[in-house]
Amino acid sequence: MLRYARPYRYLAYLNILFNFFSIVFGLFSMTMLMPFLNYLFGTAELVRDPEATGIQAWNTEFIFFLKDITGDDPGKALLLVCLAVVVFTILKNVFRYLALYVLVPYRNYTVRDLRNAVYKKVMRLQLSYFTEEKKGDTISRMSNDITEVEFAIMTSLEAMFKGPFQILVTLVLLIIMSWKLTLIILVLLPLNGFIISRIGKKLKKNASRAQGRLGLLMSLFEESLSGIRIIKGFGKEAYFFRKFSTENKHLTTINVKVNHSRDLSSPLSETMGITTLSMVLFIGGRMVQTGTGIMDPTAFILFILLFAQVIDPAKSFATAFYNVQKGAASADRIEEILRIPETLKEAENPLTLSAIRSGIEFKNVGFQYTPDKKTLTDISFSIPLGKTVALVGASGSGKSTLADLLARFYDVNEGHVLIDGMDIRDIKVKDLRGLMGLVTQESILFNDSVFNNIAFGNHEVSYEQIVEAAKAANAHEFIVHMDKGYYTNIGDRGGKLSGGQRQRIAIARAILKNPQILILDEATSALDTSSERLVQEALNTLMKNRTSLVIAHRLSTIQNADLIIVMENGRIVERGSHQELYAHKGLYRNLLEMQQMV
Ligand code: ADP
């Protein structure tokens, strides 16, 4: 994840720098304790001891300095000591705030870039990745896991940077004061670290399971939302709730475990810290009592207090470590998306293509979604420029798959799809899709105005052009009768419109794009007969002078196609014009007669 933080690493360096100053000033304010105690206990009558080193010598010098400037007035000296504490504390906290201040953009910019990266990646993924079950999980990774990364990892960074740093600086000071006592601490600390990391490992495993469960739960919720009409219609609310609450229960069980072990970090490290401290108190106390130590009692008190200062960062370091473990599970889940190999690759030196001149050809095409089952076998046909080819056949015979291959949503496993004799895998993907217009059975509209749904990201288009496209698509009439005309919001997925209206807006969008190649995938199948007529008229306008691949359920709509291809189980079983196929008395005629009976 830190790859995304790299551009902002200067902020992390600033954070470390500010933390350093904050720690140093904090220690300064602590060391003021020694002269304070000296004054309080009246032991300020010091003599310069040539043997004394480190803190003790520094303290003596400081007291002599205080004596000089206060004219040997202990009251004034005490006041100066206390003022120094205040000044150092202010400085310490100013730097602490600065350290936090630079960390905020560091954290937020990194997470912003991460979100963008996930979005871009998801847009590049092959369509088959988005089977229903994965949608909710992908959304969950985008929202919950990224939030988890932001809070668990990025907020812990501070403690991760600062903790070891503060411990190190304090330890240096402790070593200066008494290396013997410090040695005892140094033996005990790694032991504590070992125990903490053992629990951390378990935490990460559980956290990963918890996020996975949350993904499942989100998938269920997503599914329930998109299927709410059916769930209500069948009165299956209770059934779906049971499914949801069972999953919710599993999630909660793991979450409880995760939270329990995370909460363990702070009490555990405090207990271990204080135990260590007591040992130091005993050993150091004996040194002072028996006079074998090199420290006087005030120095020892300072030593203990400084050591206590290590416990706090060690504690927050342990907490941060646990949070990072928890967040690492989410980071892994985000990485998983970012690492999915992209199967649809742009050719190394892609050919550019601005217009098609001769036509489209499928040449011995074979395709399979899964290795064990062939979806399309040996498909060959061509669509000359400006002609229309219709695909018919029972559902599941592979018609939509064939259309998806032309738009290069998937790549063929055998044979070639050619445009003007060029394999579409060699053509720039952007150019290829630029040639195509797509109208599907479920017209895909977005929660935006009619205008924006027709313009669809094309900023140069004028109001007049939109109206013209809508008129050609038989949509103008009903659009102007909506409350805000072209600026009416059409709701989620166009929910405020009827199926036929949605379809006509989708057709207007295709007309506006003015593509040379048109793919119509059961564009009228979901409509009733009267709106089908309006939509079919719009489609006829759209198809004029274009090269079209039309998938039709209702055979009456494709009788004028230049070529009709009849498919069964992924193979072409008949081909010809309507008259030829009708005369042939094969599958096509069968299908046609069945529909006419209805
Ligand atoms: P049609 O459009 O003629 O109804 P499709 O092209 O949608 O047929 O489906 C052809 C076959 O491929 C079906 O057996 C279907 O189950 C299978 N299929 C479609 N999409 C996928 C997918 N994403 N993964 C695996 N199999 C799929």
What do you see in this structure?
With 598 residues, the protein is an alpha/beta fold. The chain has 18 helices and 10 strands. The protein folds into 3 domains: 124 residues; 164 residues, ABC transporter type 1, transmembrane domain (ABC transporter transmembrane region fold); 239 residues, Rossmann fold. Helices cover 63% and strands 10% of the residues. Strand 1 and strand 2 form a beta hairpin. Helix 13 crosses helix 15. It is elongated and about 120 Å long. The two termini are 60 Å apart. The model has no long low-confidence stretch (mean pLDDT 84).
CA-CA gap between termini: 60 Å
- Tally of separate helices: 18
Strand order in the largest sheet: 6-7-8-3-9-10
Secondary structural class: alpha/beta
Strand content: 5-15%
Low-confidence stretches: none
According to CATH, what is the class of the largest domain? Alpha Beta
For the record, what is the CATH homologous superfamily label of the largest domain? P-loop containing nucleotide triphosphate hydrolases
CATH architecture annotation of the largest domain: 3-Layer(aba) Sandwich
Number of domains: 3
List keywords for this structure.
single chain, six-stranded mixed beta sheet, Rossmann fold, 3 domains, elongated, 10% strand, 598 residues, alpha/beta
Overview in brief:
The chain is α/β, with parallel strands linked by helices. Helix content is 63%, strand content 10%.
Which SSEs are present, and which pair or pack?
Elements: H1 9-31, H2 33-40, H3 54-70, H4 74-124, H5 132-177, H6 179-226, H7 228-233, H8 237-290, H9 297-339, E1 359-367, E2 376-384, E3 388-393, H10 399-406, E4 414-419, E5 422-423, H11 429-434, E6 436-440, H12 450-455, H13 463-472, H14 476-480, H15 499-513, E7 517-521, H16 529-543, E8 547-551, E9 563-568, E10 571-576, H17 578-584, H18 587-597
Parallel strand pairs: 3-8, 3-9, 6-7, 7-8
Antiparallel strand pairs: 1-2, 1-4, 4-5, 9-10
Helix pairs in contact: 1-4, 1-5, 2-4, 2-9, 4-5, 5-6, 5-9, 6-8, 6-9, 8-9, 13-15, 15-16
The structure holds adenosine-5'-diphosphate.
